[in-house]
Amino acid sequence: xxxxxxxxxxxxxxxxxxxxxxxxxxxxxxxxxxxxxxxxxxxxxxxxxxxxxxxxxxxxxxxxxxxxxxxxxxxxxxxxxxxxxxxxxxxxxxxxxxxxxxxxxxxxxxxxxxx
Amino acid sequence: xxxxxxxxxxxxxxxxxxxxxxxxxxxxxxxxxxxxxxxxxxxxxxxxxxxxxxxxxxxxxxxxxxxxxxxxxxxxxxxxxxxxxxxxxxxxxxxxxxxxxxxxxxxxxxx
Lengths: 115, 111
Hints:
The complex is a heterodimer of chains A (115) and B (111).
Chain A: E1 4-7, E2 10-13, E3 19-25, E4 31-38, E5 42-51, E6 54-57, E7 64-70, E8 73-78, E9 87-94, E10 105-106, E11 110-114
Parallel strand pairs in A: 2-11
Antiparallel strand pairs in A: 1-3, 3-8, 4-5, 4-9, 5-6, 7-8, 9-10, 9-11
Chain B: E1 3-6, E2 11-14, E3 19-21, E4 23-26, E5 33-38, E6 44-50, E7 56-59, E8 62-65, E9 75-77, E10 86-93, E11 99-101, E12 105-110
């Protein structure tokens, strides 16, 4: 099983709909992140959470909200989806106290299309 | 704020060709630098890293050297394979431990 699991893998929705993307992890990491990936723009940070009671805006948080339901779960919501939110969304976790080289562990992504 | 700039892509090479993907950065202090790779349909995974000036990160035949004087961390491989086709991201670790990514470079290697 994957350490960082995102659901759904793909979603098509209409403008104005509310959408929730879910992320769960089995790595036991306190830190979780949501990024979006757009061609030519790389990955941009939407929101991040350093523990269950900590939520922080990233560089492009407008139009998004998050919920950290537990250490293992971090959900991203689009309250009223718009077409320019069409993108590939990644959840990631990190353990700054870890001794390995890996800095971020990524899920496989959710491709969201807003029509 | 911190930023990362990668060479404009995409890059298309023949198998066994030499690869260079340029990366330069702007940051406070001397951040750790990373290259991540994204294979089709997958999330990003760490390829290599360097934590201080003149460090060389290496993995799977790829190398990158942390050049403080030119604020660069160019990715190189002497002989690419078809299986190296992927998107490559340069990244730096900011003072608050977050990662800032470059735009990504699509590499296609033809047989």
